[in-house]
C-alpha cells in the first residue's frame, strides 16, 4: 500500500494520525491519508507565507514557464494519477468522460491558463499626469476542493492563483485526497519550495483555513450550506472569496427539436461523472408536444450505457462516490415517486448493497416535486413537461440555484432569446455543462460568488494598485 504525505515547503511531511480512504466500487481500503493537526496546518501556512515574497517578485513570464512545467509533469504522469482517481472517486479510467479525460482536461487547462497575460493598463496619460493600473498578488490562497473532480477542480483553483503571484495551500476532500496529494507532490518537483503545499484531514482544517489571519483568499467548491459557513468564517479577516456552490441546472427543450437526435447530448449533459458534477443538468423541461418522444429516446439511449467498476472494460459510469451522497439520491427518488413521479428507468432501491445507483429517469408533472427542487448530485433526472416557453422559463428560474442552464432548439436565435432570460451564470445551446477555460464560470443566487476561468478568473486572484504620477 502506497504511503501518502503532506507537502510542506517542498518536502514530504509525515503526521502522527491518518484516516482511511476507500474504493467506492469495491469498499476496499486503498490507503491511509495523513491527518494534519491545527499546529501542522499553521506550519504549512507559514511555509506558503515565507515563499510568497520570492515567488511574487518573479517576472510574470517566469511564472508562465513554471506553469508550463506543471503541465509537462502532470502529462508525463497522467496514467498514474488517473488510476488513483478511479480507485478513490470511482469514475471509469477509460470512459469517454472518465479519469483519463479528467487528467487530460487538467493538463489542457494548465497550458491555456499559462497563455493568459496580465499587462499594466494605462488609464490616463496627458498633460494632467499618468495613471497606471497594476495587478498585485494577494498573498496566500487556500484552495478547498470537493470529491467529484479531485484533480481538475484543484487545477482550476491552483493554477491562476500561482500564475498571478500567490502561493497556495490546498485541502482536498477527505473522500478523495490521494490524487491531489500526488499531484501536488509532482508539482513540487518543478516549483520552488513552499509555493504549493497540501494539507489533508477533517472539517476542522477547512474552518481553520477560512478564518486564518495569514490566508488572504479562499477558493471553495462545494455545497451552498458549507459555502455560507466559509463566507461567514472569512468575514473577520475580510478575505477575498471565490465560491462555486451547488447547482440545480435546468435544460429547456423547445418543440422544434428532434428527440432522437438530442438524446445523447441530453443524457451526457445530465449524467457526466454519474451526475456528480455541479454544472450537470439536474432538471429537464420538455415541450408537451414532444414530451413522450423525448422520454422514450432518452430511456432507450440510457439503457445502453454500462455502469460498473472503474477498471471494468466498457464501463462508462461508476458508483456514487460515498454513502452519504448515495442516500441523498435514493431518498429524493423515493420522495419523487411518493409525490407522483413515474419511474421510466432505474431506482429507487429498497435494500441497496453497494454504491452503484442505476441510471434513473423520472417523469414528473409538478415543479415542486423534491427531485426537481433539490439538487440530487447523482444519476437521477426528473423530466417535466411544459405548455408554453413562458411557463418553461418561469419553472426553470423558480429555484434558489443559478449555476448553469441550457436551451435545445434548431433555431439558435430563438434559443439565445430564451437563454438570455435564464437566471444562471452560464447557458449552453444544444449542449450542457461544457465548461471551457476561456469562458468565465460562476453562479448567481445561491450558486456562488465570483468567477473562475479566463482573464476574469485570473484577475480574481489579485488586488488593484494604481500608480499616479
Automatic annotation (TrEMBL):
Active-site residues (renumbered): 244
| PANTHER family cross-referenced by the UniProt entry | ALDEHYDE DEHYDROGENASE-RELATED
- Name of encoding gene: feaB_2
Please state which protein family the record places this protein in. Answer: Belongs to the aldehyde dehydrogenase family.
Q: Where's the Aldehyde dehydrogenase domain?
A: 17-465
UniProt key word Oxidoreductase: yes
Q: Which Gene3D superfamilies does this UniProt record tie to the protein?
A: Aldehyde Dehydrogenase, Chain A, domain 1, Aldehyde Dehydrogenase, Chain A, domain 2
Database matches in Pfam families: Aldedh
- Judged by the first EC level, this protein's enzyme class is oxidoreductase
Protein name from the UniProt record: Phenylacetaldehyde dehydrogenase
Q: GO molecular function of the protein, one example?
A: phenylacetaldehyde dehydrogenase (NAD+) activity
Q: Where does this protein come from, organism-wise?
A: Marinomonas spartinae
The record's annotation in InterPro entries points to: Ald_DH/histidinol_DH (IPR016161), Ald_DH_C (IPR016163), Ald_DH_CS_CYS (IPR016160), Ald_DH_CS_GLU (IPR029510), Ald_DH_N (IPR016162), Aldehyde_DH_dom (IPR015590), LUC3-like (IPR044086)
* Lineage: superkingdom: Bacteria
What's the Enzyme Commission number for this chain? Answer: 1.2.1.39
Per the record's keyword annotation, is Ribosomal protein included, yes or no? Answer: no
> Which key words are in the record?
Oxidoreductase
Amino acid at each position: 500500500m502506497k504511503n501518502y504525505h503532506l507537502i510542506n515547503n517542498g518536502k514530504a511531511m509525515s503526521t502522527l494520525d491518518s484516516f482511511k480512504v476507500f474504493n467506492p466500487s469495491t469498499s476496499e481500503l486503498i490507503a491511509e491519508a495523513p491527518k494534519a493537526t491545527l499546529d501542522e496546518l499553521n506550519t504549512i501556512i507559514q511555509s506558503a507565507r515565507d515563499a510568497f515574497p520570492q515567488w511574487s517578485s518573479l517576472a510574470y513570464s517566469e511564472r508562465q514557464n513554471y506553469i508550463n512545467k506543471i503541465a509537462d509533469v502532470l502529462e508525463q504522469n497522467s496514467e498514474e494519477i488517473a488510476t488513483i482517481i478511479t480507485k478513490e472517486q470511482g469514475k471509469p479510467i477509460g470512459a469517454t468522460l472518465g479519469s483519463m479525460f479528467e487528467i487530460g482536461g487538467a493538463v489542457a487547462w494548465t497550458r491555456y491558463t499559462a497563455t493568459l497575460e496580465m499587462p499594466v493598463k494605462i488609464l490616463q496619460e496627458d498633460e494632467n499626469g499618468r495613471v497606471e493600473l497594476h495587478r498585485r498578488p494577494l498573498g496566500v490562497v487556500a484552495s478547498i476542493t470537493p470529491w467529484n473532480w479531485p484533480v481538475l477542480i484543484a487545477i482550476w483553483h491552483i493554477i491562476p492563483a500561482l500564475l498571478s503571484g500567490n502561493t497556495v495551500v490546498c485541502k482536498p476532500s477527505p473522500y478523495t485526497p490521494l490524487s491531489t496529494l500526488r499531484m501536488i507532490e509532482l508539482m513540487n518537483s518543478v516549483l520552488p519550495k513552499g509555493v504549493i503545499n497540501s494539507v489533508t484531514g477533517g472539517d476542522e482544517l477547512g474552518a481553520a483555513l477560512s478564518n486564518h489571519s495569514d490566508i488572504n483568499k479562499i477558493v471553495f467548491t462545494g455545497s451552498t450550506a458549507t459555502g455560507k459557513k466559509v463566507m461567514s468564517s472569512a468575514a473577520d479577516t475580510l478575505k477575498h472569496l471565490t465560491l462555486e456552490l451547488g447547482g440545480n441546472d435546468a435544460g429547456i427543450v423547445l418543440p422544434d427539436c428532434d428527440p432522437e437526435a438530442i438524446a445523447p447530448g441530453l443524457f451526457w449533459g445530465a449524467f457526466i461523472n454519474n451526475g456528480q458534477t455541479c454544472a450537470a443538468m439536474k432538471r429537464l423541461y420538455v415541450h408537451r408536444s414532444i414530451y413522450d418522444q423525448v422520454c422514450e429516446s432518452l430511456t432507450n439511449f440510457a439503457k445502453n450505457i454500462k455502469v460498473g467498476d472503474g477498471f471494468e472494460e466498457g464501463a462508462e459510469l461508476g458508483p456514487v462516490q460515498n454513502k452519504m451522497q448515495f442516500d441523498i439520491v435514493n431518498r429524493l427518488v423515493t420522495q419523487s415517486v411518493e409525490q407522483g413521479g413515474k419511474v421510466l428507468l432505474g431506482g429507487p432501491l429498497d435494500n441497496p448493497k453497494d454504491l452503484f445507483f442505476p441510471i434513473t429517469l423520472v417523469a414528473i408533472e409538478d415543479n415542486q416535486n423534491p427531485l426537481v427542487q433539490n439538487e440530487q448530485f447523482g444519476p437521477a433526472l426528473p423530466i417535466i413537461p411544459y405548455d408554453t416557453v413562458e411557463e418553461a422559463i418561469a419553472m426553470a428560474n423558480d429555484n434558489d440555484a443559478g449555476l448553469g442552464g441550457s436551451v435545445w432548439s434548431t433555431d439558435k436565435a430563438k434559443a439565445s432569446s430564451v437563454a438570455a432570460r435564464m437566471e444562471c451564470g452560464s447557458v449552453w445551446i444544444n449542449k450542457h455543462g461544457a465548461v471551457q477555460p476561456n469562458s468565465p464560470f460562476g453562479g448567481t443566487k445561491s450558486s456562488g460568488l465570483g468567477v473562475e476561468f479566463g482573464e476574469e478568473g485570473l484577475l480574481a486572484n489579485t488586488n488593484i494598485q494604481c500608480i499616479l504620477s
